[in-house]
Each structure stands twice: as C-alpha cells, then as structure tokens.
TrEMBL record:
PANTHER family: PROTEIN MMS22-LIKE
Name of the protein this chain belongs to: Protein MMS22-like
Function: Component of the MMS22L-TONSL complex, a complex that promotes homologous recombination-mediated repair of double-strand breaks (DSBs) at stalled or collapsed replication forks. The MMS22L-TONSL complex is required to maintain genome integrity during DNA replication. It mediates the assembly of RAD51 filaments on single-stranded DNA (ssDNA): the MMS22L-TONSL complex is recruited to DSBs following histone replacement by histone chaperones and eviction of the replication protein A complex (RPA/RP-A) from DSBs.
MMS22-like C-terminal domain: residues covered: 848-1224
Main localization of the protein described in the UniProt heading: nucleus
Protein MMS22-like N-terminal domain span: 26-728
Source species, domain of life: Eukaryota
This protein's UniProt keywords: Chromatin regulator, Chromosome, Coiled coil, DNA damage, DNA repair, Nucleus
Subcellular location: Chromosome; Nucleus
Family statement drawn from the similarity comment of this UniProt entry: Belongs to the MMS22 family. MMS22L subfamily.
Coiled-coil region: 666-693
Organism, as annotated: Rhinolophus ferrumequinum
Length: 1240
C-alpha cells in the first residue's frame, strides 16, 4: 500500500504508469498518521495518493485496481465490466444497507474491551463502501461507453441499459446524498482514538462513520466530475427534479452538493469559532481533524479547476456567497435548503474562516506545501469586510478590531499587495489618531508611557516591518500598530513589484490628512501615533523625504508640545534611522543639537530648588544623550555632521549635573570614546593596506579628518571637566577612572587631537594626572592603572617613550592604593575611615580592583625580574593585595642582599626608594586623632615587614633618613613620649604585633650600616625603652611575658649576631630604667621587670657584661625588698647569673662576678650584713669559689662594722658570719677558727 501510494504521488501529467496487477488500497480520508516528520496528510489520502491529480488530468483513477474479470463488492463476486450496468440499483441498495449497519454499531457500548472488535467491523464496512464508490469511478472511466443518440441502428439490450446508466447514477447519487444528509447533522464529530499496548490506534464506530461520510461527499463530487468529463454534455436524471422544478442533472447536482458541502464545513467551523477568543483566533484552527483540512484543499483545487473551464464559479465566489448569507437577516433572502444560522459575530467569523482557508492555497495537488505557488486572492470580498469592520456606527470593539486586522495582515502576507486595503484603513485611523487603541484586559507593549527611548520606537517600527508576525499579535500590539504592519507589508510588496508608483499613491493619501489644524488637534497619544506612522514610512520608503516632511509638520504643533519628550524621542529616532541607512545626518543634527544646547544652558542656570523644572529638562537632555550615543555606536563611518552633535551643551551640562546625572553623561562619554577608538583602528588597518586606489585613499583620508574632528570635540567639551574633578567626590570614582583611561587610550591612538596643556606627550601627561599623582583617590588610581596595564600597546609605548620610571612609578601608586584601602576621605578629618570589621572594611569592588591591579602589575618586566632574582614565590598570593605587597617587599630585600657589585646595590637602593615615594604621607591619615583599627593594623604590619626586609637597604646612607622618619613617625611619635598618657588601644595593639619586625630590622641596619650611626643606635634604645615597660604585664606571669614583643624579636630572629645589639639595648634599658634608683628607693613594677629579666635569661645566652650590669640591681632587690614574689624572682635571676658565670670562659667571669659581689658587700655590708650573709649562702650553694674569694672582704666588713658601732665584738653578727663560713669547706673552717681564737 505504501509503495503504491508513494508511486502515485509521482505520476506525470501525461503518462500512465504500469504498476503491475497487485491490488492497491483505494485512497480514503484518514487522520491516523504520524505528523512528526512535517507531513500534513496521510499517505492514504486523496492528495498524497495522487487521486486529485488524476481526477483533474482525467486519468484512470486506480490504474492497478479492478483489472480482474470479477470483483468482490459487499462480499459478492461481480463481473467487473458489467456489474454497474446490470445491477446498479442492487449495488447502491447494498451500499445503503452497509451504511445502515455501520450506523447501528454506534449503539454498542464503546469500552476498551470491545473497541478492537468494533474497530475492525466498522473499518471493514467503511472499506467496502469506499471500494464500491471507487469502482463506480473506474467503471465510468474504463467501461462506460458514450452512446450515439442520433444512431437508428438497433442496440443490444445491454447497450440500452448502459445508455440509461448515467442518468441512473445521477439519481442514485442524489438519493445517496439525501440518505446520508448534511455533514453538519452528524450527532457527534469526535475524531478521538484509543491506543492499545502495541501503540496501534483503534477508532470507535463514530470515527469510521464520520470519515465514511467525508468519503461519500467527496467521491460523489469526483463521480459527477468524471461523468461530465466523460460525456461532455449534461446528464439528466429520470427520477428527481430540483427545487426549482427543473430536471436534475449532473451539473445541478454537483453545484447543489458543492454548496451544501461548503455550507456544512462553514457550519462546523462556526461551532468551533464560538468557543474561540478573538485574541487567540489565528492560533485556533477551524478543522476538527486533518481530514476536514484535506476536504477544504480538495474543494479549492476542484472548483478552481472547473472555473478555469467556465464550468462553474471559482472557490472564492462559492465561499463568498455563503459568507454573505451570514449577514442576511431576512429569511426570504435565504435558500430553503439552507438551515438558519445566527452567528454571534459574522464579521469575526468571516475574517477567521477566510484567513484559515486562504492558507490552504499553499498546498499543491499532492498536498505538499509550496511557498512559490501563486495563491488566488479574494480582495474584493475582504475589502467589503474591511469597510464593515471599521464602521464606527456599529461601535466595533478594539479587541475585535485587532483580530480583524491580524487576519488582514495574514492575508496580505498570502496575496498580492492591495493599496485599497491601506486606503480604507487609513480613512479610519486618520480620524482616530488620538486614540490609544488599548483595552483594559490586554496590556500592550506599545503604549506611549512605556516607550522609554528612541531605540524602542525604532524597534517597534522594525517589528511592524518584520515579514514573520507573532501569533500573539492581538495581545501584544494595538490595532493601530497592526495597521502599521499592514501598511509596511503592502508598500514593500507593491514597490517590489511596481516600483515607486505605489509609494506615491500611499504618500499622497497619508500626507493629505496632516495640515496645521490637524497637527494642533494632536494629543500626547496622537503625537506618539504620528511618529510611529512616519517612522514606519521612512523605514519602508524614502527616509529623507519623510523626515523633511515631519520637521515641517512639527512646526504646526501647539507651543506646549514643542518641548514634549516625544518630539525629542521622535527626532532622535529619525536620527538613528539616518545612521542605520548610512545617510548624512547634517540637517537633523544641526537642529537637534541646537535645541540640546539651549536646554543644557537652562539646566545650568536652573536652581536646585526648582526640581520640577530640572527633572523636565533632564528628561529631554537624557533623550538626546541616549540618541547620540546610539548614533555613534551604530554609525559605520563618521561624517562631518557628527561633530555637530558634540557641542558646548555638554560643557554646560557637566557643570550642572548631580551624581546620578553624571553617571549617565559619563556612560555616554565612555561609549563614544570606545567607538571612536574602534573606528580609528579599522581606519588605520585600511590605510596600511598596499595598492589602495586613489579614490579610496581620498575617502579614507576624509574619514580620518572627520574622526579627528569628533575626537577633538570630546577633548574640548569633556576632558577639562574630568581634569578639574580629579580630587572631587562629585564624579562617581569608577566612572572617572574609566573615562580617564579611555581618554588616555585616545591620546595614544590620536595624540594630535589632545589639548595643548598635555602636549607634547599626552599619554605620559595623562598617566601623571590620573595614575601617579598622590592626591588622587586610590580607588581612581587602582581602576585607572588596571585599564592602562591591560593595554599592552600602551605599556610598550610608555616603555619606549624614554619614561624610564614608568614601572617604578606604577609600583609606587600600587603601594599607595593598598596602604590607603581603609581611608574613606582623603581630606575630611572628622569622617576619615571605614572602621568596621577589617574583613568587611573595604568595599568588595575596590578589593577586586586591587586584586586585578596586583595581577597586572606582577606581569611588568621589572617586577617579574625582582621575583626571578629573589626566587620568592608570588603566584599563590595575587588574590590578596596585602599579602602580595608584603611578598614584593620581601623579594626586593632578598634581591638586594644577593647583589655583589657596589654599583648594582647603589642603583637598587635608588630604585627601591623610588618605589616607596612619600610613603609616610600615604599612612599619615591613620595616625591622626581619628583612629582606624584596620588601617593601623595594615600600616604597622606592612611597615614592619618593610623595615625588616629592607634592613640592609635602610643601612645605606641614602635610605637611613627614611628609616629614621619611619621610626619616629610610627614607633616614637609625640604621643608615645608622653609617659603620662596612654596610647590608644588600637595603636598599641598594632605596635605590639609589629614591634618584633621593626626591632629586627633596626638591629640589622645598625650592624650593616656603612658608617656607624649613633642616632640609629639611640633610636633602637629609645624604642626598646619605650615598649619594654608598655607591654609589661600587670602581674609577673611568665606565660604572659613569652609574648612580649621585645622578647619575640629576639626569639624569632633568623640572624643571631645582629640581635646582640638589641640584647645590649634591653640590658641597658633594664639597668637604667628599672634597676637603678637613687638611694634606697625601689623601682616601679619590680616583680614584672624581674620576671622579664628571668625570661630574657632563659631565652638568651648570658654574658658576663650583662651580669655586671644587672646583678647589682638584683642584689639590691634581695637586700631591700621583703615582698615574697620579688625575692623569689630576684633569687632565680641571681641563680641564672651565677650559673652563667660558671659556664663562662676561664676564671675571668668568676673574677668579674667576685668583683660585683665585693662592691655590693662594701656598699651594703655595714647596714644589711644579715641579708648579705643569707644571699651569699645561696651563692655558695651554687659556686663556693666565688664566696671563698669574698672571705677577706666579708671579714674586713665585719671588723669595720664592729669598729663603727664601738660595742666590741658583735656576737650575733659573728655567729651569722660563721654560719656562712661553715658552707665554704676547709677555707671556711679556718676562718671560723680565726674568729674563735680572737685573731679577728
């Protein structure tokens, strides 16, 4: 079957194909097919099988069927060549009987269990009926002979019967049609199906009955058509007469049946239309299933084929007559055979059905869509519909009108252009131009208050001119914009076919409706509709002619409307259209820019309290700005007239703008600058090409001049303002940086256009102004330099320009940007800092900007070289600018230490100082009265790393002065020197964390200094002295002292030798500030300092010189203080010192220790003899030799004491002395014996 169907599709118009004797299933209506492959009709259909084509070409209907001698019809074998002549009435009776059997199946219950059986029975009945009707067609074509009526030769009885067959067929077909009735009278039209487990569709009997009715109605038309073709004359029926009393003929039956069939199709469609919303009309099809669609296509082809041979009217005439009947209200005007129909919306239904039926003309005789096929139009009837549709007296609704015009637009797409349609519609809309054409339940995209820009107006026009329309048109567009789409489509099609003449017709019709009085009558909505109309005309026809006419008409507006934002939007839209069509905008630009300059001046002089006036002016100005930006962005090349768009209005506007308004203007500036640079690049490439034609060369040179003129205008009207706002907060900082960077790139591309005040090196001047100047906001600098460093050509140009410090100065600015990240205001001291959680203290955008700048900066050759020489890893820390800065300082320090040549070291020192610049100025705001915890932490940590990492650099004479200033500024400010005042807690915390770094760096600098510097040693001592006491804990807990920053400096130092200087300073400070006191007074916080000393001795090696300095103070504490904690700590210190001297070299340490004790005995022996003996007992337990060497001094002290008091021997003192001597071995025993013998 499929092979036969496919083969029949390719039958030629003049050739019969021999397809063998295999039985091929006759075509029939079927919607049981898979339409996923784009198929519109079943392979068994009359279209796909080629049946329609064979009918029209008068070919054998079924060349492979009914070729046997006998044929089975309704289960009975018949002689193929004579059955219809001999038994026509019997066969038609059997046909009606089978039809009755099918109708009886409708009464059966159609549940899922019985559907398979019912489907098979119904399908078998249907196939028998369809086969019989196809047999009738084949019999007429092959076997029925045309009798000669004028012949008097006796005829065979069979021939006599055969002569009567045509009339009998007319009678039987008429009877059959009366039996089946109207298609619209079927009880239920439901093409639904069941599916079994094998995905096979099973249809109920109602489906088979419906499709059999379709087959009957169509095959009757085929049989009647073939009768007419066979006999070439009218065939009269014998049994019936028509309603007019005339004999029934094949022609009258054909026309009557065709009319009834079209009526039924209309009636069924009308039932579907009553359930459709106007806004969804074209999305809702009028055919219940594809078979009805196929029937429409078959009727179209058959009726149009007959009309070409003057046998009947065309399909559209048939349909028009029936649709006109819908509007007839009197019953006497209707045909008696026609049921009465009262449609609720005959206009809408007529539009709907005509539009859908018109789409069927795309299908050819095989049912395949053919876009090149000429579609017959029905404009005459549509014009009548259109006039009825816009009849104002009937009060047509906007929603309905949209649907009508949507249908009309679709028909314009199908058919040839018709200017009359535009004329009819324009008569209506020209009178209603002030209407908004809106409905409360359908919000539109095209209302006046929604159109925000000229570009939106052009987009609306572009949408109206689009060839493919949206099916949701009724919801998204007003009837007026749909009219504009019709206008565009008709004019474009007409001009394509007939040249400019149709445009002149339309132009005359439209222009004639606008005069001074009409323009004065326009409202805001009317003005919007006015612009939409003329923009569309400009888009599809002559833009210059239309624009000129619009400018003339705008002069007729009321004075109140002349400053309307709509007029500015409209002018900007025309300006954009000129640009898109690559036309010179001179005439429009001059007038539009002049109006802009006037409004900018008004905006400048308007007072801030006149907010209403400013707002009104700003709306107009912003329309101009957006329009001009779009002009530059869409221009393929610049003309001399583009310069006119950039006038003094911008200079005045910039001075008057507030922050939000400035954002808009600067966005415009950036967009134009980017476009100018892009166009210059393209032009440069064109100019560099070889063998360029002279005319082309001249054109390119002109373009270059125009480009330079526009660039000069930008410098003139924008740059001076930006330059004046470098230190202001009025301009949004990111946009200030972006605009400055764009101007820098423009200066690189077109240096001659830059103003004289930044010549002769405009690029270098720009970077000095916005990238290297220390008074510029760090946010601006970071963003600006990021833009510059991203441009490799700019970096290369600067490197080759003789600016040897380009990279160093950029590094300096980067350092400043990081150090000042917590500064909120550079100039207002009362609101200086962002002081929140340090992780949240800096805006995310700025941190991302710093990270980007860091990433770019680390790609500079100078920076890469430093890291390469130092072998310091830099990649993992680029996302954290602070860590990156620290790593950079470390890399510089390592690089310097690795240098060998003196000249290299000197150059490195100079370069390093260039990196830092006035670094103390960068951090000075943090050290004022207003405190920023995060800022202080950043300052002290970074500067501590700097001092430590660059210690050897700071040891040089070039850098020592900076080190002095850093120490004085950060560690020894005036506030620190005032002992009675407490340091702010955030500052004290920051110093505590960073002090070890500073001390370590200072020690290295002291040791590495090229010239011994007493001031540097003094600074080290002062810092040590200040902060030993400030960080002493309140209670002498050794665990707390472990974190003392001074001790941390000693503990964490990687270099031992340089730190001895710090230790000496510590010892000197302790002795001078805490252990030395006048007379017998005690120093403050004695326990804490003793604990500090003890921790110092535990973590470092004790030198005898340290013992000589500290031991007298410790011994004094033991003598004078009775507090247990002090005594305990002093004793522990004493033990550490004695043990240290024991471990010392040779006897020198012991001798010097003995000397300290001897001096102590001489100073305190007369008054504190018992305490001294106790102390020495403890010393003797550690080192007897030290005390033994003191026996003579002790004995002399005893004698001096007894002599002084004059009481003779002091028995108690001698006893205490003897106790001490008893711990000294034999030497002590000998001395005791002398005491007892009285030798002393």
């Amino acid at each position: 079957m499929d092979i036969c169907s496919a083969a029949s599709t390719f039958l030629t118009d003049s050739l019969e194909l021999e397809l063998g004797t295999e039985w091929c299933k006759p075509p029939c209506f079927s919607c049981a097919f898979d339409n996923r492959g784009g198929k519109h009709f079943s392979g068994e259909s009359y279209l796909s099988s080629g049946a329609l084509k064979r009918l029209i070409l008068n070919l054998d209907p079924l060349p492979t069927n009914f070729e046997e001698d006998t044929v089975e019809i309704f289960g009975i074998q018949w002689v193929t060549e004579t059955a219809l002549v001999n038994s026509s009435r019997v066969l038609f009776h059997l046909f009606r009987q089978q039809l009755y059997n099918l109708e009886t199946l409708l009464q059966a219950s159609c549940d899922f269990g019985k559907i398979s059986t019912l489907h098979c029975k119904a399908d078998d009945i249907r196939q028998q009926c369809v086969t019989f009707l196809h047999y009738v067609k084949v019999f007429i074509f092959r076997y029925l002979k045309v009798q000669n009526a004028e012949s008097h030769v006796p005829v065979h009885p069979y021939e006599a019967l055969e002569a009567q067959l045509p009339s009998m067929l007319v009678d039987e077909l008429h009877g059959l049609l009366l039996y089946v009735g109207h298609l619209s009278e079927l009880r239920s039209i439901n093409p639904g199906a069941y599916e079994n487990q094998n995905q096979i569709k099973l249809f109920p009997p109602s489906w088979h009955l419906l499709h059999l009715h379709l087959d009957i109605h169509w095959l009757v038309l085929e049989i009647l058509q073939m009768l007419g073709e066979k006999f070439k004359q009218v065939v009269y029926g014998h049994q019936f007469m028509n309603l007019a009393g005339d004999n029934l003929t094949n022609v009258s039956l054909f026309e009557e049946h065709c009319e009834n069939l079209l009526f039924d199709l209309i009636y069924l469609s009308l039932n579907r239309y009553d359930k459709v919303r106007p806004s969804e009309a074209l999305m809702s099809h009028h055919c219940p299933c594809p078979c009805f669609k196929e029937l429409w296509v078959l009727l179209i082809h058959l009726l149009d084929h007959r009309s070409k041979r003057s046998l009947s009217e065309s399909f559209w005439n048939w349909l028009n007559k029936l649709l006109k009947a819908l509007f007839e209200t009197s019953s006497d005007q209707r045909r008696p055979s026609m049921p009465v129909i009262q449609p609720r919306d005959p206009l809408g239904f007529s539009w709907w059905i005509i539009t859908h039926v018109a789409s069927f003309y795309q299908f050819d005789r095989h049912g395949a869509p053919d876009e090149t096929r000429q579609m017959e139009s029905n404009w005459s009837f549509v014009e009548e519909l259109l006039k009825k549709s816009i009849n104002v007296q009937d009060g047509i609704l906007e929603e309905q009108l949209r649907m009508y015009l949507h249908c009309c637009l679709t028909l314009c797409d199908f058919w040839e252009p018709n200017i009359a349609v535009v004329t009819i519609l324009w008569e209506y809309y020209s009178k209603n131009l002030n209407s908004s054409f809106s409905t409360s339940w359908h919000p539109l995209k095209g209302l006046t208050n929604i159109i925000k820009s000229p570009l939106c107006m052009l987009e609306m026009v572009k949408t109206c001119c689009c060839d493919k329309q949206d099916y949701n048109l009724c919801k998204s567009r007003s009837s007026y914009t749909i009219f504009l789409s019709i206008l565009a489509k008709v004019v474009k099609k007409a001009m394509k076919n007939n040249g400019p003449h149709p445009w002149k017709q339309v132009k005359g019709r439209i222009y004639s409706k606008f005069h001074q009085k009409r323009m004065e009558e326009l409202t805001e909505v009317g003005l919007q509709n006015f612009f939409n109309l003329f923009l569309l005309l400009a888009a599809v026809a002559d833009v210059e002619d239309v624009a000129s006419h619009v400018l003339d008409l705008l002069n007729f507006l009321k004075p109140a409307f002349k400053t309307s934002s709509l007029i500015w939007k409209g002018q900007a839209a025309f300006l954009l259209m000129y640009t898109q069509k690559n036309l010179d905008i001179g005439a429009l630009a001059e007038k539009f820019s002049g109006a802009f300059q006037e409004k900018a001046k008004e905006f400048l002089v308007s007072k801030n309290d006149e907010m209403g006036q400013r707002h009104t002016l700003w709306i107009l100005l912003s329309i101009y700005i957006d329009g001009v930006q779009e002009v530059f962005e869409t221009s393929h090349c610049l003309h001399a007239s583009h310069e006119k768009l950039l006038n003094d209005g911008f200079s005045m506007l910039l001075r008057a703008c507030q922050e939000s308004e400035l954002r808009t203007v600067l966005n415009f500036l950036q967009a134009v600058l980017a476009r100018i640079r892009n166009m210059h690049q393209q032009l440069s490439r064109e100019l560099q090409k070889e063998n360029v034609d002279l005319n082309v060369q001249s054109s390119l040179s002109a373009k270059e001049r125009h480009l330079a003129a526009v660039a000069s205008a930008l410098w003139k009207h924008f740059f001076s303002f930006l330059k004046s706002q470098r230190m202001s907060q009025t301009v949004p900082l990111p946009q200030l940086a972006d605009a400055a960077a764009d101007f820098t790139l423009l200066a690189m591309a077109m240096p001659s256009t830059a103003p004289s005040d930044i010549q002769p090196q405009p690029v270098l001047s720009m970077i000095q102004l916005f990238g290297w100047d220390d008074i510029i906001w760090p946010q601006v600098v970071a963003r600006y330099l990021s833009h510059c460093l991203q441009n490799s050509m700019l970096c290369e140009a600067l490197s080759q320009s003789g600016c040897v410090s380009f990279q160093a100065l950029t590094v300096r600015s980067w350092i400043r940007c990081i150090l000042q990240m917590y500064i909120k205001d550079l100039y207002v001291a009362d609101d200086l800092f962002i002081d929140r959680n340090s992780e949240q203290a800096v805006e995310k955008d700025y941190m991302e900007q710093l990270a980007e700048l860091t990433r770019l900066l680390f790609k500079l050759s100078e920076v890469k070289n430093i890291f390469a020489k130092s072998q310091v890893e830099c990649l993992p820390i680029l996302e954290d600018p602070k860590k990156a800065l620290i790593r950079f300082f470390e890399a510089v320090g390592v690089t310097y230490r690795n240098l060998q040549e003196l000249s290299d070291k000197s150059a490195m020192v100079t370069k390093s100082l260039e990196y830092l610049g006035e670094i103390l100025k960068y951090i000075k705001p943090y050290l004022g009265k207003k405190i920023s915890s995060a800022g202080l932490q950043l300052t002290y940590s970074v500067m501590g790393i700097l001092v430590k990492s660059w210690a050897q650099i700071f040891a040089t004479s070039k850098a020592q002065r900076l080190l002095f200033r850093i120490i004085d500024c950060l560690l020894l400010p005036h506030l620190v020197l005032q002992q009675e005042k407490e340091l702010p807690a955030p500052m004290l915390t920051a110093i505590q964390k960073s002090l070890p770094l500073f001390l370590q760096g200072m020690c290295v600098a002291c040791c590495q200094s090229q010239n011994p510097n007493a001031y540097l040693n003094q600074l080290l001592g002062n810092v040590t002295g200040q902060y030993i006491g400030r960080f002493l804990p309140a209670s002498p807990q050794l665990l707390d002292l472990e974190q003392h920053p001074v001790l941390l400096a000693l503990r964490n130092s990687a270099t031992g030798a340089p730190m001895s200087q710090l230790k000496k300073c510590i010892v000197q400070v302790i002795r001078k500030s805490y252990l030395e006191s006048k007379g017998f007074s005690l120093p403050p916080r004695l326990a804490s300092i003793l604990a500090f000393m003890l921790q110092l001795f535990r973590e470092t090696d004790i030198d005898i010189s340290d013992v000589e300095l500290l031991l007298p103070g410790v011994l004094k504490c033991l003598v004078l203080v009775s507090e247990f904690q002090v005594k305990r700590l002093a004793t522990e210190n004493l033990e550490y010192m004695v043990r240290a001297c024991q471990a010392g070299s040779g006897g020198e340490a012991a001798a010097r220790l003995t000397s300290v004790f001897r001096d102590f005995i001489q100073d305190y022996g007369m008054r504190y003899d018992y305490q001294i003996y106790s102390i020495l007992e403890a010393v003797a337990a550690l080192d007897q030799q030290v005390v033994i060497h003191l026996i003579s001094t002790l004995t002399q002290s005893l004698k001096d004491s007894e002599q002084k008091w004059g009481f003779g021997r002091n028995t108690k003192q001698r006893k205490a002395y003897s106790k001490l001597l008893s711990h000294l071995g034999q030497v002590g025993q000998d001395e005791i014996q002398r005491l007892e013998n009285g030798d002393i």
